[in-house]
Amino acid sequence: MPDTSAVTLSRFEPDDGPGVISLILSIQRDEFGIPITLEQQPDLAAIPTFYQSGRGDFWVAKSGELIVGTVGLKDIGNAQAALRKMFVSVNFRGPQVAVAPRLLSLLLAEAQKRGITEIFLGTTDKFVAAHRFYEKHGFSEISKESLPNSFPVMPVDTKFYVFRFPG
Hints:
The chain is 26% helix and 29% strand. By secondary structure, it is α+β, with helices and mostly antiparallel strands. The chain has a single domain (4-164), classed as Aminopeptidase (3-Layer(aba) Sandwich). It has a seven-stranded mixed β-sheet. A hairpin with a 2-residue loop joins strand 2 and strand 3. The radius of gyration is 15 Å and the shape is globular.
């Protein structure tokens, strides 16, 4: 069991890049068998310019110096954003550790502070646990046709969700 008290959340810094890439690619390829490369995800090599602009940002969860979780908020205009790259290491999942809920809570709080009214996300049908997680935290499934034109659909995305802030 990992030491949950040692997990800290922080804004992405350039030194976090290799750890972010390693975590995300290992989950995509090794755990879920998705044949995706770093080259097919240019956002990972350009986190500061891709995510940390406009109302967007990117955060990491660390256990010591090890990156164990990630989440990105991509500003897509019109007070809307895309939730991207939410990944948590298998050893840091589950209610005992609560890395994913902590990352999502941070993202939602920051998005609301920044005036975002809707957050959209796309995911693959293979991430069944993720579907339950998002639904449990207030996201509603929507059709691909309901996405704003500015939403960056990834080739692996087959399910889509929206979170709307009240008011």
